[in-house]
């Protein structure tokens, strides 16, 4: 299966480990990610101002690129890009007047957008098109004994109309862990906000949240937190160094993208794991898995 | 024509907006109007006298009363006409309150103009009104009560007390409903086993009540006074006429571990089971989906197992154990047809499944349970004999949190309404819990306490002041498991603080929702349900026990969440309605119904297809529509659908409608 792939900026910079592992995992499952021949910023944050049409140009332009490249569906890894594109898509599907305005503004584009691209997150493809049984078949190194905290943040499940899963208690990551041989903890913070861009202006808010959220994951028995958003990863993983400075009692906990643990479980070559981009080295937990075996 | 127009002020309701004097003056100019007057309250005694005397004095042959909605006072003024010797159906209402004064209060002059038009249009209608005579139909003086909870039980007993026969149909193996599952009832703390079981026994011993448990309504035809109902008696595989209720069969059955319906999954039952010891009737049924023998027979019948050459004895332990030989593996569903004159629907409620509340760990965390489960844990005849033990490890919880409005008052969960009983039953449960566990702590998270019943507020205060139950005003946002504890996150909106609370057990006051299957039943009965699936009453204020289908009444929580007090009152009220229906030798029906002109009718059947009441049939010989005047509710759908104009509504014929439209649109030509 070939599918259009929209990376977004972080996947090419700080979240290379996400992209490398995802493309490798997809290939193993027989899915070829075809990166869009041209793409721009997703728009970063979905604009909720009702008369703000200009901020919808960036996401819609990306959807035009999908059509240009001859695809009907696009897969996204970064939760924020996914959320922004899917919501912009939904907006123009529901509001034809705004769609007309946007198309008029971008009159130099070859295609008028019609709201007909399907925006999918990779987790949806794994669940709905590949299926857990198929994933299980590819597992060479089961992650038996490993326990993960599933972390969705806000962008995969909110608002409800773009949610990829149950809004209040998503379980797609739980199912993924199970098919890889691992288990999920009951993690009440799984849909809480990571603090988002407060990390720039009010880093203390993020430090306190990360302290609480990582500690609870550890208390509940997690070996790592698993997520799908580079911004959440920055707050929950990269920021742990600062958390340690602020709270001397804090012990770091690995944080990984769901595709990284898949790559390990599938027994793919080590250069597809991208662990070198993880500020907290997660290798130890997989050794632990080996020992428990 | 000699028509009188009577314009009502309705205090300031109408006169505050409309110039009623002007309306009365203008009405005098309408051709055919010989009298026109306004009065402050036309529905009052002097107002009615004015109408009555004027009819006599002016020898009126038509009356238009310009006042409120016809659903309020049409009957009043038709009765006035009858007293004055005028055919009641020569009276029509011009609604100038709900349709003029109220919606146009900011434009009084325009409103007055509109009122004059409404009056004139109604005068034009009355001119072509016929003098109608109500139809009379016979009544079968037997009643059907659907649902054997406390509402159905009370209604059946009351009707039987009135001297009429009642069929009481209940889908589960026993009557008693939800009430019999409860520990104690608020605010008096009576136990239902003491106050409901005697009524259940009365039902089984009353010679006028035909109890049909483990039975469901297959279909309903006919109309008020003359319903034909087919009842499906589900196969119980036990001959109840032979069964002594000893329970030897249950002891013998080897199939265990089936979640008990009565104990809401907190204990197990067997494949053959008696719901509980006080069940009425006290007889077992076999669960065909779980019984080894019946499953085997089914597989053989479906050809999945080859039929053995000689008879093989599969598990028949219950049959072997049964002294009176009551077990019958050959039993099948039976259909019985009964004829009744009135039906009371008392199908009660269910609780929203806790799985619908994933943010509260519903269905995932074993120690998060719903209100009825906790009732069973507190009930002397429950799975723990009344000692509250939590499901996960059987420990007596030292701290319990109660969450109000779990799903209720929450449009995001599809329930915008208040479930009405949760405030009281959660306070009661906390109260009973504290009596069992003296050093136990109980926390209630509430939005606001709704204790608006006799003795209710006093009970809540007692719970707070004497029992030290902690009431926290605020919603719970999340519930999760930490070790063997359950943790709640929430807010105390009085102090403005965020709260984290660790407890042993959480009880969710989950929203009340309509019983499963009530929609299908409602469509069989041709009665509507509201957007949530509750049975729709004919008028919320003035006809709360009736439905739009004549002869079908509703009682209890099938209409909307209500407590036992209200349920029993409503059940007796519905029974009273049935007794009133049965008190007359025959029924009179409104004559303002549809009528087919058989000279014009081509028998196409459009009218039959649009009729919501199944009131129209096509005569197979004459190929024309026949309106059953006992069933027709006079809605007019058939008249609108009729392509040839053969179908008309009496006193609202097409010519009358066109006349009225002509008046209404005059200025806009």
3D structure, described in words:
The complex is a heterodimer of chains A (293) and B (669). By secondary structure, chain A is α/β, with parallel strands linked by helices. Chain A folds into 2 domains: 2-122, Up-down Bundle (Glutathione S-transferase Yfyf (Class Pi), Chain A, domain 2), CATH 1.20.1050.140; 140-292, Rossmann fold. In chain A, 44% of the residues lie in helices and 10% in strands. Chain A has helices at 16-28, 57-68, 79-94, 96-105, 122-130, 132-137, 172-180, 198-201, 203-219, 230-238, 240-246, 258-265, 283-292, and strands spanning 2-6, 32-35, 73-76, 118-121, 147-150, 183-184, 224-227, 255-257. In chain A, helix 1 (16-28) links the parallel strand 1 and strand 2. In chain A, helix 2 crosses helix 3 (79-94) and helix 9 packs across helix 11. Chain A is globular and about 55 Å long. The mean pLDDT of chain A is 94. Chain B is an alpha/beta fold and 669 residues long. Chain B has 5 domains: 3-132, Rossmann fold (3-Layer(aba) Sandwich), CATH 3.40.50; 142-176 and 185-229 and 339-347 and 535-582, FAD/NAD(P)-binding domain (3-Layer(bba) Sandwich), CATH 3.50.50.60; 248-332, no CATH class; 349-513, FAD/NAD(P)-binding domain; 590-650, 2-Layer Sandwich (Alpha-Beta Plaits), CATH 3.30.70.20. Chain B contains 20 helices and 32 strands. Chain B has a 5-stranded parallel β-sheet. A 5-stranded parallel β-sheet of chain B has the order 18-25-19-20-21. A 4-stranded parallel β-sheet of chain B has the order 2-1-3-4, with helices on both faces. In chain B, strand 19 (399-406), helix 14 and strand 20 form a beta-alpha-beta unit. In chain B, helix 7 (150-161) runs parallel beside helix 17 (564-582), helix 13 (371-378) packs parallel to helix 14 (422-436) and helix 14 packs parallel to helix 15 (456-465). The radius of gyration of chain B is 31 Å and the shape is globular. Chain B starts with a strand and ends with a helix. Classes of the chains: A alpha/beta (293), B alpha/beta (669). Chain A binds chain B through residues 166, 168-169, 186-188, 219-220, and chain B through 357-359, 361, 364-365, 478, 480-482, 487, 489.
């Amino acid at each position: 299966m070939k599918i259009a792939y929209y990376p977004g900026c972080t996947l090419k910079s700080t979240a290379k480990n996400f992209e490398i592992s995802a493309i490798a995992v997809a290939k193993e499952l027989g899915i070829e990610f075809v990166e869009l021949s041209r793409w721009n910023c997703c728009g970063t944050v979905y604009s909720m101002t009702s008369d703000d049409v200009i901020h919808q140009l960036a996401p819609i332009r990306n959807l035009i690129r999908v059509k240009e490249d001859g695809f009907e569906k696009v897969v996204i890894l970064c939760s924020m890009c996914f959320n922004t594109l899917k919501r912009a898509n939904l907006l123009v599907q529901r509001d034809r007047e705004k769609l007309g305005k946007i198309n008029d503004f971008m009159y130099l584009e070859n295609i008028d957008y019609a709201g007909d691209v399907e925006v999918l997150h990779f987790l949806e493809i794994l669940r709905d098109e590949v299926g857990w049984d198929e994933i299980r078949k590819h597992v060479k190194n089961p992650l038996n004994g490993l326990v993960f905290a599933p972390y969705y943040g806000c962008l995969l499940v909110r608002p409800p109309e773009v949610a990829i899963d149950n809004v209040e208690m998503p379980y797609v990551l739980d199912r993924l862990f199970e098919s890889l041989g691992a288990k999920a903890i009951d993690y009440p913070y799984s849909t809480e906000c990571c603090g988002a861009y407060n990390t720039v202006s009010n880093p203390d808010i993020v430090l306190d949240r990360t302290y609480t959220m990582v500690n609870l994951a550890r208390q509940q028995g997690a070996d790592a937190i698993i997520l799908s958003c580079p911004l959440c990863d920055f707050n929950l993983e990269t920021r742990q160094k600062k958390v340690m400075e602020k709270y001397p009692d804090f012990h770091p906990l690995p944080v990984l993208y769901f595709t990284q643990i898949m790559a390990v479980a599938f027994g793919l070559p080590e250069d597809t794991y991208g662990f070198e981009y993880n500020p907290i080295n997660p290798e130890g937990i997989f050794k632990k898995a080996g020992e428990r075996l | 024509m000699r028509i009188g127009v009577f314009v009502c002020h309705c205090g300031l309701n109408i006169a505050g907006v409309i110039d009623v004097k002007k309306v009365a003056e203008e009405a005098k100019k309408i051709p055919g109007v010989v009298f026109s007057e306004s009065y402050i309250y036309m529905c009052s005694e002097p107002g009615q006298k004015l109408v009555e005397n004027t009819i006599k004095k002016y020898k009126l042959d038509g009356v238009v009363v310009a006042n409120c909605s016809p659903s309020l006072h049409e009957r009043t003024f038709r009765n006035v006409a009858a007293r004055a010797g005028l055919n009641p159906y020569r009276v029509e209402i011009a609604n100038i309150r709900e349709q003029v004064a109220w919606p146009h209060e900011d434009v009084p002059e325009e409103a007055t103009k509109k009122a004059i038009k409404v009056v004139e249009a109604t005068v034009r209608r009355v001119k072509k009104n016929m003098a109608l005579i109500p139809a009379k139909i016979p009544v079968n003086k037997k009643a059907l009560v659907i649902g054997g909870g406390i509402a159905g039980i009370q209604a059946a007993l009351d009707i039987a007390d009135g001297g009429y026969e009642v069929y009481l149909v209940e889908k589960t193996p026993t009557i008693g409903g939800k009430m019999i599952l409860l520990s104690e009832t608020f605010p008096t703390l009576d136990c239902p086993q003491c106050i409901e079981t005697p009524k259940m026994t009365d039902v089984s011993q009353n010679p006028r009540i035909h109890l049909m448990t483990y039975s469901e309504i297959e279909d309903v035809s006919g109309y008020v006074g003359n319903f034909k109902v087919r009842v499906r008696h589900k196969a119980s595989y036990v001959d109840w006429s032979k069964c002594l209720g000893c329970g030897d069969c249950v002891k013998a059955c080897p199939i265990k571990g089936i979640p008990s319906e009565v104990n809401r999954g907190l204990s197990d039952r067997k494949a053959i089971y008696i719901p509980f010891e006080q069940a009425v009737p006290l007889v077992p049924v076999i669960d065909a989906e779980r019984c080894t023998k019946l499953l085997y027979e089914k597989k053989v019948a479906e050809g999945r197992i080859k039929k053995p050459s000689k008879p093989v004895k599969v598990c028949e332990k219950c049959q072997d154990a049964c002294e009176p030989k009551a077990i019958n593996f050959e039993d099948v569903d039976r259909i019985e047809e009964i004829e009744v004159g009135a039906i009371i629907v008392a199908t009660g409620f269910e609780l929203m499944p806790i799985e619908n509340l994933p943010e509260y760990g519903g269905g995932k965390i074993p120690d998060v349970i719903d209100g009825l489960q906790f009732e069973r844990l507190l009930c002397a005849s429950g799975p723990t004999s009344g000692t509250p033990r939590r499901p996960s490890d059987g420990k007596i919880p030292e701290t319990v949190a109660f969450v109000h409005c779990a799903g209720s008052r929450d449009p995001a969960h599809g329930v915008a309404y208040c479930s009405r009983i949760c405030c009281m039953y959660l306070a009661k449960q906390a109260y009973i819990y504290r009596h069992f566990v003296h050093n136990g702590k109980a926390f209630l998270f509430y939005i606001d306490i709704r204790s608006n019943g006799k003795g209710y507020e006093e009970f809540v205060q007692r719970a707070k002041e004497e029992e030290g139950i902690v009431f926290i005003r605020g919603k719970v946002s999340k519930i999760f498991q930490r070790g063997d504890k359950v943790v709640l996150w929430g807010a105390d909106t009085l102090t403005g603080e965020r709260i984290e609370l660790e407890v042993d057990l959480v009880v969710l006051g989950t929203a009340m929702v309509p019983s499963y299957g009530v929609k299908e039943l409602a469509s069989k009965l041709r009665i509507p349900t509201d957007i949530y699936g509750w049975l729709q009453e004919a008028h919320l204020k003035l006809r709360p026990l009736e439905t739009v289908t004549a002869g079908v009444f509703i009682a209890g929580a099938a209409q909307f969440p209500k407590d036992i007090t209200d349920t029993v009152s409503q059940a007796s009220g519905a029974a009273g309605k049935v007794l009133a229906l049965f008190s007359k030798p025959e029924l009179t029906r409104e004559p303002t119904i549809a009528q087919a002109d058989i000279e014009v009718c081509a028998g196409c059947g459009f009218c039959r297809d649009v009729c919501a009441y199944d009131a129209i049939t096509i005569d197979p010989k004459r190929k024309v529509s026949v309106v059953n005047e006992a069933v027709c509710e006079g809605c007019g759908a058939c008249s609108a659908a009729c392509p040839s104009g053969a179908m008309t509504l009496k006193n609202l014929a097409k010519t009358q409608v066109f006349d009225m439209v002509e008046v209404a649109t005059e200025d806009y030509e």
